Amino acid sequence: MPVQKTDAIVIRSYPFGEFHKIIIFYTSDFGKVRAAAYGVRGPKSRFGGSLELLNRGTLVFSERPNKDLRIVQEFGLTDAFDGIKADYDRTTYGCYLAELVNAIESEHSANQGVFRLLQHGFDGLTRVNDIALLARGFELKLLDITGFAPQLSQCVVCSSHPPRNTLRFSTRLGGVLCDDCTHNDSNAPILARGSCELMKFLRRCDLVHLDRVQASRLNHRELQLVLSRFISYHTELTLKSLELIEDLNSSQRM
Ligand SMILES: [Zn+2]
């Protein structure tokens, strides 16, 4: 039974039998790893609370021949991200970032960029004020490093630099459209030039230092619409926690 050791973050868990749990980790060396934590729900669990959602630690797991499900042997907690868990909204956004990684990444494909991004996303969540904007930056960076990067600098059809103040964003075609090419996707919503520039900025900005930028309500509304549609289209998944928190946010802004 080969044993592996790696840095890992708990991105999902669900009950398994009376006393056990299946834990989904995102790991630095193996990408997404699904493993059974036996006895974790029992009264004398040797794991304590270390395997809670969003926790980071050193994972030791064993592999079994011809079985996808691994077994958690040890988990040495290194960061419980208390700064996130002390706040309900930050926790909800943290769960969303984890859910997004779980939805986009498949098992058996390691991407250290995704692991670093998740760590930076959680670090940012403990510090920045505009956590919705942090989620947009996280989405863009995750799309970029997993190969879904939307085209923002030039028209996705004719490659011209978009000439006017108002652009459109085509989910289906994968980026912005200039005025001459809008007929290629009549459903593409408007994206203000400022919102497009903000997306380009978020793509290269360090998530921990996001408070240097101010986003208007229009920016927030447009980025949320464009990116949620883009993610749903490319992952073919509806992200439950995103719908919940963004609905909550839009009702608070009214
Ligand atoms: Zn064009």
Summarize this structure briefly:
With 254 residues, the protein is of the alpha+beta class. It has helices at residues 82-85, 88-104, 112-125, 131-145, 193-204, 217-235, 240-253; strands at residues 3-16, 20-27, 31-37, 56-62, 70-79, 166-170, 175-177, 190-192. The chain folds into two domains: 3-80, OB fold (Dihydrolipoamide Acetyltransferase, E2P); 84-253, Recombination protein O, C-terminal domain (de novo design (two linked rop proteins), Up-down Bundle).
Spell out the key features of this protein:
single chain; 254 residues; alpha+beta; OB fold (Dihydrolipoamide Acetyltransferase, E2P); de novo design (two linked rop proteins); 2 domains; 5-stranded mixed barrel; 3-stranded antiparallel sheet; 7 helices; 8 strands; binds zinc ion
